[in-house]
Amino acid sequence: MNLLLAEDDALLADALAAQLRRAGFEVEHAPNGAVAEYLLSRQTYDAAILDIGLPMMDGLAVLEGLRQTRPTLPVMLLTARDGLEDRVHGLNAGADDYLTKPFDFPELEARLNALLRRSRLQSPAKGLELGRLSLDGESRRALVAGQPLELSPREWLLLELLLQHRGRVITKEQILQSWGQDANASNAIEVYIHRLRKKLEGAGVAVRTVRGLGYLLEASP
Length: 221
Ligand code: CA
Prior knowledge:
Blueprint: E1 2-6, H1 10-22, E2 26-30, H2 33-42, E3 47-51, H3 59-69, E4 75-79, H4 84-92, E5 97-100, H5 105-122, E6 129-130, E7 133-136, E8 141-144, E9 147-149, H6 153-164, E10 170-171, H7 172-179, H8 186-199, E11 205-210, E12 214-219
Parallel strand pairs: 1-2, 1-3, 3-4, 4-5
Antiparallel strand pairs: 6-7, 7-8, 8-9, 10-12, 11-12
Helix pairs in contact: 2-3, 6-7, 6-8
The structure holds calcium ion (CA).
């Protein structure tokens, strides 16, 4: 497993790189955002660990650029700032997970392995497929194990959004935006999530609630 570690604190970067290598990862270190962006555009990594507070280009900007070219590369953000706004910003920009400094190495390792596991589960899926669920965007049909699923227009949009961002959190704002609705409709989201969960029983996928942030779709056993 090949990792990019973007961290400007040299002591922390050295310690993390040494621990990651001991845990069996190959690690390349970028001391600033510009080097991180350069390496990400030229090398193939299995995951990236990006500090948010980086010189030259912050971690969120690196992530936003990366998502244009590598939408599915697992990305873990490191942040010194423990704010909901930062986390939401990071997740909206396409981060898969985040850790607030200071953290213990075993937590980083466990979360990283969870990201890599999720990414391996999803990688065989081409287009909008997960578990026994598949979506055909042209005909606007959802199939579970080949059988069509009856969906209202809003349910369709919600499921499409979840599947496009599978394994990543979507916020209530993103859902409302896809519906073309304002915040007044946000109470309806839970109702639709509830209905979708019922319809997706047996589809090999689960809609998980991430408290305070939103929802994510993941493969379930
Ligand atoms: Ca930093």
